[in-house]
Amino acid sequence: MSAATGVLDRDGCVTHWSSGAQELLGYAPVEIIGRPVDDLLTAEGTLRHRDGLPLHAQVHLCPLQDTDRDGGFLLLLTAMSEAATDTPRDSLLPQWIFEQQPLAVAICDLDARLLRGNEPMLGVGGLSEEEARGRRLTEILQGNAIEEVERRVLRVARTGKAEVAEPIVRLPGESKAHAWAMDVFPLKDADGSVRAVGVTASDYSQQYDSRERIALISEARTRVGTSLDIVGTAREFAELTVPRFADFVSVDLLEPVFQGELPAPGLPRGVTALRRAAHRWAAGHVPALDAVISATEVHPHPWSSPVARCLAESRAVRHSTKDPEVIRWLAEDPVQASLAESFGPHSLIAVPIRAQGVSLGVVLFVRYAASHEEAFGPDCTAISEDLVDRLAICLDNARRFTRERGIALALQRALLPRESAVHPAVETAARYLPAGGGAQVGGDWFDVVPLPGARVGDVVGHGINASATMGRLRTAVRTLADIDLPPEELLTHLDDIITHTAGEQGGEPTGEIPGDIGATCLYAVYDPVSGTCSLARAGHPAPVLIHPDGTSSVIDMPCGPPLGLGSLPFEAADVIVPEGGLLALFTDGLLSTWDRDIDEGFSDLRSALALPAASLDALCDTVLDTLCPEPHADDVTLLLARPRMFDQDRLASWDLPGNPAVVADARRLAAEQLALWGLAEAAFVTQLVVSELVTNAMRHAGGPIRLRLIKGETLICEVSDGSSVSPHLRRARVFDEGGRGLFMVAQFTQRWGTRYTRTGKTIWGEQVLHMS
């Protein structure tokens, strides 16, 4: 073909070459066929003649399709006319780009005086080039934003460094201010000296408004709903939208929402009562107190109000204050009429807050003429709906949290001890603070368990996010404490119970860890006879011991893993608690917060425990006021225990030889001791208990045998031996000669049981004293 054409294969290599292509590009077919088409292009991607010069031509590349073989491409080349390729004189190009640039362009001298300006720039100031030349920028336009631009021009002239600015400027004759994007840059000579300053400006108000709206909606996702508090969430929303979107915003909710309940789906036509959750005015628009609807106040809205109508119709409504509907509403609502008369609003939007297909309340947006000359438009309605959608999600989360937290708190408070324990061996006081803010109830718990031998067990634990977990753990601890296990064995059994329970739950995996797994526990047993406290912990903070002189220390004791992990054994530590000393047991919520690590928490706790207090209850309050002045993200539990040692005149003990004849001596010794204590009326039962327990020890166990009597609120009789075999209560038949001993002990004492020790066991019986 004579036309400039060629054919390329699928890989871009030339397979055919016309005479027209040879004439245009200078390549003969033998020179170009088989070579890639890239050889025809310069580094910039334009066509190149065989002599190496760029070629001004139009290139068309068309695909060739053939079902019988692989397709390629048809290359069509068309030379451009000489007029189209002629380049004007270089001196004309700068002039054209300056005059025909759609952006506003100006050139200023080093004193910020205008030297030149194109038509868009001169149109901004409303002056001709002759009138504007030689004037400073602040002499052409007025305003703080123009003064800032002039300062930037002077700074660029001085430093030679370009700057950018985004001033909001209201030009003469305009009803609203516009957003401008400005570049201020130096104009330098060949030596690099600044000879003038260039300024370009572009009105990007539409993009600015869109960016601000997107930013507002995006910010709502991070600033609204930071807590699970209904009023706090409403307040965050009001603070976000005023004054950026409106001059006044109110969030009014139906009453059931504040109790965590979901309102009924339908609302009766008529007056609608809503309770104010939050409101906010822009600066300069705060009304007098007598015209304010305070937070938590219930306000009736007549059917004519936009609030009631948008709630009933489940759609947003937008109005000018001159609309008949608004005029009728203000006539029926004197409070809103008073506010409207004071500040002169020109437009409003009411948007229902809907979640799960039910209306929770209404948000009212109002603009005043003094701040927002532009009334709410259709695009504002869409923005307000997007904002309220985010608020609805957060309020529904807060509502559900309020309901679930109330249930959990009721359950947890029902399971915790209702008052301080009264025990002859220890004085206690405790405080429990549920989590505040956005956290759920953490399942913290504590208990004071009376144990045999006038001993007492203190337990503090933390179940992960579940009051039900706390209840299960506390019940298990109570059961194991009744068996009178040492602290480390109690934690081992508790760990086994949790592990087995988690393994038996079965069902489809949910990906959730059972609440018991990872729970922590501290168990302490105090013996008032020896003054020794035995402690073991499972992933729990170590307690603090406060000495009588006010000094304190964190008890150094082994720390086992949290419950249910079963990775390491538990170990106990024995601590001598001096007379007048104090033990502080607590959960980790008391120590660590977002701004305080656990070491600082221990230091602050020890300092607070050293403060003077009239009682343990007062000291509990002092500690919490010091360490927890604000709501915590975790539960806080504090248990203070002041142990008391028994005086020696309340104890009596004897080592008995392994001779059956000593049983009579044991009865006699017990009777004599009761007489010294003035408890002769208890001698009969006590001698019976001593006789049976000592006899069983000699017959079934072996030495060493020890008899001990403890006089407290009750009378406790203990017989210790070297065997770990536990006796069993059984009912003897009519003709049996034995087997009635423990049965009689159980009948004549208030309670009895077995306590295992490292060297054997102790069988005990407890009697109620009837002292005059």
Helix content: 25-40%
**Overall pLDDT confidence:** 81
Q: What is the CA-CA span between the terminal residues?
A: 134 Å
Shape: elongated
How many E-type strands? 32
Describe this structure in words.
By secondary structure, the chain is an alpha+beta fold. α16 packs across α17. The radius of gyration is 45 Å and the shape is elongated. The termini are far apart.
Q: In short, what is this structure?
A:
It is built from 22 helices and 32 strands.
Topology:
Elements: E1 5-8, E2 14-17, H1 19-25, H2 29-32, E3 57-63, E4 73-79, H3 82-85, H4 92-100, E5 104-108, E6 114-117, H5 119-125, H6 129-132, H7 137-140, H8 144-159, E7 163-165, E8 168-169, E9 178-188, E10 194-203, H9 205-223, H10 230-241, E11 248-253, H11 255-258, E12 272-281, E13 298-301, H12 306-313, E14 317-320, H13 324-332, H14 334-343, E15 345-355, E16 358-368, H15 378-415, E17 422-423, E18 426-433, E19 444-451, E20 455-462, H16 467-482, H17 487-504, E21 520-527, E22 532-538, E23 544-546, E24 552-554, E25 572-576, E26 582-586, H18 598-609, H19 616-627, E27 636-643, E28 651-656, H20 662-676, H21 683-700, E29 705-711, E30 714-721, H22 741-748, E31 751-756, E32 761-768
Antiparallel strand pairs: 1-2, 1-4, 3-4, 5-6, 5-10, 7-9, 8-9, 9-10, 11-12, 11-16, 12-13, 14-15, 15-16, 17-18, 18-27, 19-20, 20-21, 21-22, 22-25, 23-24, 23-26, 26-27, 28-29, 29-30, 30-32, 31-32
